[in-house]
Specification:
With 248 residues, the chain is of the alpha+beta class. It has two domains: 31 residues, no CATH class; 198 residues, q2cbj1_9rhob like domain (Jelly Rolls, Sandwich). Helices cover 24% and strands 33% of the residues. The strands form four sheets. Strands 3, 4, 8, 9, 10, 12, 13, 16, 18 and 19 form a ten-stranded antiparallel sheet that branches. A five-stranded antiparallel sheet has the order 7-11-17-14-15, with no helix packed on it.
């Protein structure tokens, strides 16, 4: 089978005659357009960009918080033997995170989202956000080529409740690289301005491209609703505190 970037079948070739199969396959592949032109029209990922979610003072406050606390290596979630575990693998992700623990800061964080972002999500996606998961400041450094390979954010029992991912840049003018890409929709990259957000379904394949100069600071919450909260509660039993470090 020949698949398009969205993993949809565009050719299904019989294997009864190997030579005929290979000739036909070569003909199909030779005639395929470049990946970015496979639809015949320019494609954009179904991602919402909303400017001015955080003001610049709050962005700087969060960056200062990272400088004060420092960050820890950030992993990702995988399913193993029916449990959701953490994985650290420098070949797949290089990022450091610090947790926002101040209740006052978290309250201001929520207030910005409720006032400036949640209504835009309701308008664009007809979805009522009522819950937020994690308050962090993330750091992608050019020194280590900070990146996150293509992945989806809801593929384990411990993450199945996630509905929308949010990427809010805190210093968009101060680094190169470090943009979002949705491989199923071509090679185009997406970058919100400082204080702005990119919002997209957690089911979409996406990546953070390597930072090639400077340091990218961002905050990366997940949003969901009351129905999804029931899924999260039911799946807590599958969450494991285990972290597998593949870098040692």
């Amino acid at each position: 089978m020949v698949l398009d970037p969205n993993l949809r079948v565009i050719a299904n070739l019989a294997l009864s005659d190997v030579n005929a199969h290979n000739q036909l396959l070569q003909k199909i592949l030779t005639n395929l357009p470049p990946i970015d032109d496979h639809a015949g029209v320019p494609l954009s990922a179904p991602a919402l960009i909303v400017p001015r979610v955080f003001d610049r003072d709050f962005c700087q406050e969060l960056i200062n918080l990272y400088h004060t606390q420092g960050g820890k290596e950030s992993g990702f979630m995988r399913e193993k033997d029916g449990k959701t575990i953490g994985i650290q693998d420098y070949g797949f992700k290089r990022r450091k995170d610090c947790e926002i623990v101040s209740e006052e800061t978290k309250a201001r964080f929520r207030a910005y989202l409720v006032r400036r972002l949640v209504p835009e999500i309701a308008k664009a996606f007809q979805f009522k956000v009522t819950r937020i998961e994690r308050y962090i400041v993330a750091c992608y450094e050019a020194e280590v080529g900070g990146f996150f390979r293509p992945h989806r954010d809801n593929t384990t029992k411990g993450t199945a409740h996630r509905r929308f991912a949010v990427s809010i840049n805190l210093n968009a003018e101060e680094y190169e690289g470090g943009d979002l890409r949705f491989p199923e929709f071509g090679s185009r990259t997406y970058r919100a301005p400082t204080g702005g957000a990119v919002v997209f379904s957690c089911s979409l394949l996406h990546e953070a491209t390597p930072v090639t100069k400077g340091i990218r600071y961002a905050t990366l919450p997940f949003l969901y609703d009351d129905e999804a909260a029931k899924i999260r509660q039911a799946n807590l039993q599958f969450l494991s505190g285990d972290v597998v470090n593949l870098n040692t």
